[in-house]
Design a protein that fits this description.
This protein has 495 residues and is of the alpha+beta class. The chain is built from 17 helices and nine strands. The strands form two sheets. Strands 1, 2, 3, 4 and 8 form a five-stranded antiparallel β-sheet that branches. Strand 6 and strand 7 form a beta hairpin. The two termini are 45 Å apart.
């Protein structure tokens, strides 16, 4: 998913790197040192004024001698999902460059919010290209089509153009100054409690963990921090990312980001044993609200669908989380005599035996608190907090194609969160097939002008996701206008 990068911009790389592109979980600083091969000459600065979404007649636009096709492609997804020709068609016909520009620029008028933004490209030959920047959406589109990356990441806005960083390397004039506050949910962090899948595999049962996490984090960001412009994006495989675009969030320094991440961190400790939730009483309002949001999910998605304590070893972990040894011993004896007892029944047994008085020393209040902690351990978000702590972290762009699955990283509408199906997210080949099918069904239409008004993305199942993204951007731009006006007035006052 996101990539952790070095805290110091001076150590970053902007050369061709003949190494594997970073995996979803591998920090960049752990990669093999790249060989030196300059790429400055690859780029020129001419504007690109073609329309954003090319029609069917334009998809054969040549890439010329772009180095992006020089290396042999090693696709993780089926070849048809991620080969260069397919990806080039996707960028030319479907990717919403102008909406992305407005989202990152916070205005329709070009500014340094976009021009000083870092982009990083993972190329088809697994080279990784960093510290790229573009003054306009058209120029970004031109170079993406030329490079034809398997995906690209978005970094911070710097105090100067990232392309000039070498001349400013030892100067305080080059540093990250703004970036969206981001969060990362990865289902591999749930492997110790999900019983249906592991590693990169997902299903509808374990996707409920992502749904729970989105509900809790989104509620906290809105109610406790007052953020409004939050967009959740499917990672394309096994998780989701949050992008918080409010100006207050973008301008946070690393210490403030760390504080927000710490506020949301409840699950602590490694994958091996031990109690992972240790919260103070009385409960913080955020925890109380989270328990209320999660209680129904615990009954349905955890006890019934995951059945986490069906195995004796897992049941033993549950017993260790209870505060009374006599009660735990009684439960162990009951469960040993009834192999195959479901997790839902085992959970009910805790209260039943407690009320039966099997332990004379049981403190009912302490038992209730222990049960709350257990609910949180199995439902509360498990965030990769390191992703959220630093401005300099790179995160995969929304609406790119995940090279491992071919699925588009589509935004998730909070209003339909419960019904979002990651396995039904559109794949790039499916989208291109849908364009062909639409064109074929409309080829007999004599009204050519009407047909040409339909952009390619509107012919596909990507349309509701692009429309959602566009609406999200429009709301943000509306709220940014007063801020931009104030900034312009401040600039005008400087002589």
């Amino acid at each position: 998913m996101p990539h952790s990068v070095s805290d110091s911009p001076q150590t970053a790389v902007d050369e061709w790197e003949p190494m594997k592109a970073p995996s979803d979980t591998t920090p960049i600083e752990l990669q093999t040192a790249p060989t030196e091969m300059k790429v400055e000459d690859l780029f020129n600065d001419e504007e690109y004024d073609d329309e954003e979404f090319k029609g069917s007649e334009n998809v054969t636009e040549s890439m010329g001698s772009s180095p992006a096709t020089a290396g042999a492609l090693q696709p993780k997804a089926p070849a048809s999902q991620s080969d260069p020709e397919t990806m080039q068609a996707f960028y030319q016909r479907l990717f919403p460059f102008r909406h992305l520009f407005q989202w990152l620029n916070h205005s329709v008028k070009p500014s340094t919010d976009f021009a000083h933004r870092e982009f990083a490209f993972t190329l088809p030959n697994d080279a990784y290209l960093r510290y790229q920047s573009f003054p306009t959406a058209d120029l970004l589109r031109k170079h993406v089509v030329r490079l034809n990356p398997s995906r690209f990441e978005i970094g911070p806005v710097y105090t100067a153009n990232p392309r000039d960083r070498k001349t400013l390397r030892r100067s305080a004039n080059f540093r990250p100054m703004a970036k969206e506050l981001v969060f990362d949910i990865d289902l591999t962090d749930y492997d110790e409690i999900r019983t249906c899948c592991d590693l990169a595999n997902i299903c509808h049962k374990c996707w409920s963990f992502v749904t729970m996490a989105i509900k809790v984090v989104d509620s906290a960001l809105r109610n406790d921090f007052g953020f409004e412009h939050i967009m959740w994006v499917y990672s394309g495989r096994r998780g989701a990312h949050a992008w918080v675009s409010d100006k207050r969030a973008r301008s946070m320094d690393d210490q403030k980001r760390k504080a927000v991440a710490g506020y949301l961190e409840v699950i602590k400790g490694g994958a091996q044993g031990g109690k992972k939730v240790n919260i103070k009483r009385p409960l913080h309002p955020h925890i109380t609200r989270s328990l209320d949001l999660l209680k129904e999910h615990f009954q349905r998605d955890i006890l019934q669908n995951q059945d986490p304590w069906a195995e004796p070893k897992k049941a033993e972990h549950l017993l260790r989380l209870l505060p009374d040894k006599t009660l735990s011993d009684a439960l162990r004896k009951k469960w040993d005599s009834a192999p195959g007892r479901s997790s839902a029944n085992k959970w009910a047994d805790i209260d039943a035996l407690a009320k039966a008085g099997v332990s004379k020393t049981l403190d009912v209040k302490v038992l209730l608190e222990a049960k709350q902690d257990i609910v949180l351990e199995y439902t509360y978000p498990r965030l990769d907090v390191e992703v959220s702590k630093k401005q300099i972290h790179l995160l995969k762009s929304p609406l790119v194609v995940h090279p491992g699955t071919g699925r588009v990283c589509v935004p998730i509408d909070n209003n339909t969160l419960e019904t979002f199906d990651p396995l039904a997210a559109p794949t790039v080949t499916r989208l291109l097939d849908e364009i062909d099918a639409w064109d074929k069904s409309n080829e007999m239409d004599d009204d050519r002008d009407t047909t040409q008004k339909v952009q390619d993305y509107e012919k596909t199942s990507l349309k509701p996701y692009v429309d959602y993204f566009r609406t999200h951007v429009a709301r943000m731009l509306r709220d940014e206008k007063p801020m931009k006006r104030e900034r312009d007035e401040e600039d005008a006052m400087e002589f």
